[in-house]
Amino acid sequence: MAEWIGKDRRARRCYGFDEVALVPGRATINPNEVDTSWKLGNKTFEIPIMAAAMDGVVDVKFAIAMGKLGGIAVLNLDGIQTRYENPSLILDKIASANPDEATELVQSVYLEPIKETLIAKRVSEIKAKKIPVFVSCIPQNAEKFHAIAQEAGCDNFIIQSTVATVKHIASEYKVLDLEKLCKKSKIPIIVGNSVTYDVALDLMEIGASALLIGVGPGAACTTRGVLGIGVPQITSTVDSAAARDHFFSRKGKYVPIITDGGMRIGGEICKAFAAGADAVMVGSAFAKSEEAPGRGYHWGMATSNANLPRGTRVKVSTTGTLKEILFGPARADDGSQNLMGALKTSMGSLGAKNIKEMHDVEIIIAPSIQTEGKVFQVGQRVGMGK
What we know:
Elements: E1 2-6, E2 9-12, E3 20-23, E4 38-40, E5 43-45, E6 49-51, H1 60-68, E7 72-76, H2 87-96, H3 99-109, H4 116-127, E8 134-137, H5 139-152, E9 156-160, H6 178-184, E10 189-194, H7 197-205, E11 210-213, H8 223-226, H9 233-251, E12 257-260, H10 266-274, E13 279-282, H11 284-287, E14 297-299, E15 313-315, H12 322-327, H13 339-350, H14 355-358, E16 362-365, H15 375-380
Parallel strand pairs: 6-7, 6-13, 7-8, 8-9, 9-10, 10-11, 11-12, 12-13
Antiparallel strand pairs: 1-2, 3-16, 4-5, 14-15
Helix pairs in contact: 1-4, 2-3, 4-5, 7-9, 10-13
């Protein structure tokens, strides 16, 4: 699979969403009769599309709205919601800042210390509405924040970093013992982000309940430009799904793969499932909703880094309600709304009656799939030409 890139050095060709297409099978299914559900632990969720733990996407109100629609939204415990009693004032400032001052402003507002009382408060506010509570934080805060969130009634805890590994070497601070935390936790722990077969297998071995897959593909993330690291999402999902299946064959434990980032529209979400994802995590698509706290703006989790920001604030605009983005009717022509309708229609067209069968559909390498026959759309910047 690898190609020579110079003397004594080979590199493997990897693929992203724009380079592949899905091939219809020999049967089709009524889209209303396909099953999009997925399992995490002992719970089943009907919507396999999660809202990312980003401050421009999820706050308490958004999490409740998403939960009432049957979906999952992840609250960022390292963010504005746990630093400020009234985060709306801060969000207004970020939304009104001009592009030149946005990054510096984001860096400054995240200097406010996290208040542990607000962690419990935010979890309780979501829990009071009988909505499953998903929260996220970085490894350095995981042990302390996990205890607080679990006590407050959190249902699922996510430990999320730019690159997640079981082995982390550091002398300046105490390293989180991921295996110990996974084993003592009373609630499922999702770990991310990773992109390789070997790391996925390592994280499953130490007890992760699910994995987030993706380094740097997000709309507001600049990790790939700043650090030069990452693997395109089709390849990283396929490799991680292979680790999941190998682990299941050996241990009998199924660890869901959640493709995280890089998906703007329905077709990309469908391709992630075909590559092996059990669920996907999306940021920018939900940042466009009327319910999103970002006021039409979206920024990465690492944008606030004081020394080396690996994200930026991007304008995504507000295009519709959360319900429209999830279930339609779509008011946009580019596939960014009615994501569940797109998934069901794709599954029906492919003859996949559930997510597991989506894992087996044929994928072809098709770099012209986005442009073939679309000259008018591209020229007029409509539909797939946007």
